Amino acid sequence: MTDTYKTIVSPSKGVLLKEKNSKFFGYTFPITTEEDVKKNLELLKAEHPAAGHFCYAFQLGTTKKHYRTNDDGEPNNSAGLPIYGQIQSYGVTNTLVVIVRIYGGTKLGVGGLISAYKTAAQMALENSDIVERTIAIYFQINFDYKNMNKVMRIIKEKNLEIVSQKMDETCEILFSTRKKNAEMIVDIFENLFEIEIKKI
């Protein structure tokens, strides 16, 4: 079971591919929601008022993946799918790739379009800062203050990341751990008396 995924760190600088006088500008953006897709498209539309097509593909999610492609007026599957193919090829998620086309007066044909959109997407991803991240699972534990030392010892030993904590007579700690360690962590806390653990 893998508990890592690849994504991009920040929006890439635009790359340019010229094909028979048409210009294909390629961009990548890190995204977490479909709303981010709309925002980034609006930015590009403001930047390229003369462009006729804003074709894109994106993939979201780390365990369950969700993707969408858009040909934006180009012939069916000649733009969005070749772009998505490159997202798959680079194995990235939570990533949007947009190719902005400014028509140069010469038709490229479906084969030419597929090739141009694929190449521009590849160049854009090549130009991106891709990182590997671990999938985190979040838990909340509740316990009495007297058990604090026991709990903190496990948190330290198992390298758990504390997200938030409330310390009172009864304490509550929110922490995260790597997905592959989640079951083991639950077992450890469930075997301790007077400590409640639940996944968030």
TrEMBL record:
Signal peptide: none annotated. This is YigZ family protein. It comes from Flavobacterium aureirubrum. It comes from the Bacteria. PANTHER family: IMPACT FAMILY MEMBER YIGZ, IMPACT-RELATED. Pfam families: Impact_N. Belongs to the IMPACT family. Residues 20-125 form the Impact N-terminal domain.
